[in-house]
Amino acid sequence: LTVAVLISGTGSNLRALLEAAEDPDYPARIVVVGADREADGLAHAEDFGIPSFTVPYAHFATREEWGAELAAQLRVWRPDLVVLSGLMRLLPAELVDEWSPNIINTHPAYLPEFPGAHGVRDALAAGAAQTGASVIVVDNGVDSGPIVAQERVPVLAGDDEHTLHERIKPVERRLLIDVVRRIAVGELDLTSP
Ligand code: GRF
């Protein structure tokens, strides 16, 4: 299975996928990494010799024009699966519709709890005793697509957004690596998750 990973940030989830894909028995290959800015995580692609591209959101007048360029880049690489992992942008419906259902996203909360760009902060603000990590199929809502994997993560006394997010990310990585594997071997059919 060929995979394109889209990021905006540090790309720790991307790195975990790259490391997993180093194993010749892992049934998926990351063929390209894309970013909506000069993301730090692009360095991981370089470390692993994986091609990357950036489509800087700031260079485009509208989300649709940005999305159209992103879609054009993805078409060049023709991956089987697109993984959003820390992409902090909503994709235009045209791109989602072109790739659906072969486009998944990781989210640092136990969806449908705490969707959106601040899931970790929102769980803390709500005083939740536990939150979680989720992998979903991307639809045209905000973190509203079918859930393909999720796991609870405890909120500990004294947690701040950083400590809680750092406890969530390893769970997210493990779920993501397993979901991509299951898709690759046909255990998980995204058309009927
Ligand atoms: C991850 O928790 C992801 O789910 C969220 O942002 C974080 C990205 O972390 N959207 P990283 O860039 O993979 O380190």
Automatic annotation (TrEMBL):
- CDD domains, sorted: FMT_core_GART
Its pathway is: Purine metabolism; IMP biosynthesis via de novo pathway; N(2)-formyl-N(1)-(5-phospho-D-ribosyl)glycinamide from N(1)-(5-phospho-D-ribosyl)glycinamide (10-formyl THF route): step 1/1
* Catalytic activity, EC: 2.1.2.2
**Catalytic residues, chain numbering:** 107 (proton donor)
Top EC class for this record:
transferase
Asked whether the UniProt record includes Transferase among its keywords, one would answer yes
Extract the GO molecular function terms from the UniProt entry: phosphoribosylglycinamide formyltransferase activity
Under the heading Pfam families, the entry gives: Formyl_trans_N
What keywords are annotated for this sequence in UniProt? Purine biosynthesis, Transferase
Reactions this protein catalyses = N(1)-(5-phospho-beta-D-ribosyl)glycinamide + (6R)-10-formyltetrahydrofolate = N(2)-formyl-N(1)-(5-phospho-beta-D-ribosyl)glycinamide + (6S)-5,6,7,8-tetrahydrofolate + H(+)
What sequence ranges are listed for the domain Formyl transferase N-terminal? 3-180
Entry keyword annotation includes Transferase = yes
Tell me the residue numbers annotated for binding N(1)-(5-phospho-beta-D-ribosyl)glycinamide: 11-13
The positions annotated as site (Raises pKa of active site His) read: 143
- State where (6R)-10-formyltetrahydrofolate binds: 63, 88-91, 105
Q: Which PANTHER family match?
A: PHOSPHORIBOSYLGLYCINAMIDE FORMYLTRANSFERASE
Please give the function described in this protein's UniProt entry.
Answer: Catalyzes the transfer of a formyl group from 10-formyltetrahydrofolate to 5-phospho-ribosyl-glycinamide (GAR), producing 5-phospho-ribosyl-N-formylglycinamide (FGAR) and tetrahydrofolate.
NCBIfam families on file: PurN
Q: What does the sequence similarity comment in the record state about its family? A: Belongs to the GART family.
What's the protein called, per UniProt?
Phosphoribosylglycinamide formyltransferase
